[in-house]
Amino acid sequence: MIDDFIDRVMARAPELYRDFAWRRTTNPYEILLSEVMLQQTQVARVEHYYERWLRQFPTLDALAAASTADVLCAWQGLGYNRRALALKRLADEVSEHRGGKLPTTYEDLLALPGIGPATAAGVMVFAYGKPAAYLETNVRTVVLHELFPDSNEVSDRRVLAAVKEAGERVHARNIDARMWNYALLDYGAWLKKTLANPSRRSKHHSRQSPYEGSRRQKRAMLLRAVLAEPGLSSDELARECGFELAITETVLTTLATEGFIRQEVTYSDSTLCSDARTNAASFTKQATARWLPQ
């Protein structure tokens, strides 16, 4: 059964193959970047940002040397800004402790900040050409369509078991790990365009809430405003983005806690009262809180 599945997927590979910049490299950092960017972001948008990012931050050492503000500015438009922050933290650690080079084992990759099982597997497969259980949304779609056509509420545990079994057979048959996973990804993308998305039959499938008016949108807008004009107060940012002050302050505080921005408080003298007879004035310190990139 697994061999038939492999044959069916590989038979579609030449017809469905998609050519991307990240498929023309085996540089581990460039592969990692593509894997992180492609999480929850459409391929067409990633294509626009990928090469521009690499021109600005061509290596992990270059990314580590950059300011958090520059990294977040370069990420604007891709969404889910936590990914940029995690990538920066990873670059800092790899540059400081690993000579700017990513590790070559799955376990060591998993130990780095922000790298989960799918990202680690992606680097192992596409950078190092080693077999690994690579499970992401397009791969899940293929497995559900081909191996669980009449099942609902299929758990990722069952899907991952099928991916691992197929991977072992692919390795035993001397099929290139990169080409096998490219074939899965391309077939899955094609299925999503031509059929009702089989991923809906996954036990873990959930429909994403609307972006408009969501907390995600407010986070993105406020972060963009701080990056564009550092030093604005909560009041000014609330007016700039059209949000209530209470919501603005809550979101700003969360962004600061997560390491995206920071608050700087400055003090200035403010006249409290004036004595007309002596022309003397009393002063008090007035605090002003401003929001700045981290």
In terms of per-residue confidence, which ranges show pLDDT below 50 for 5 or more consecutive residues?
A: none
Question: Helix/strand/pairing class, anyone?
Answer: mainly alpha
What count of helical segments does DSSP give?
A: 14
Sum up the overall morphology in one term. elongated
How many domains, in number, for the residues?
A: 2
- Neighbour order of strands in the largest sheet: 1-2
| N to C succession of SSEs | HHHHHHHHHHHHHHEE
Can you summarize the main beta sheet? Answer: 2 strands, antiparallel
Strand content: 5-15%
Q: Could you estimate the helical fraction of the residues in percent?
A: 55-70%
Please identify, by name, the CATH architecture of the largest domain.
Orthogonal Bundle
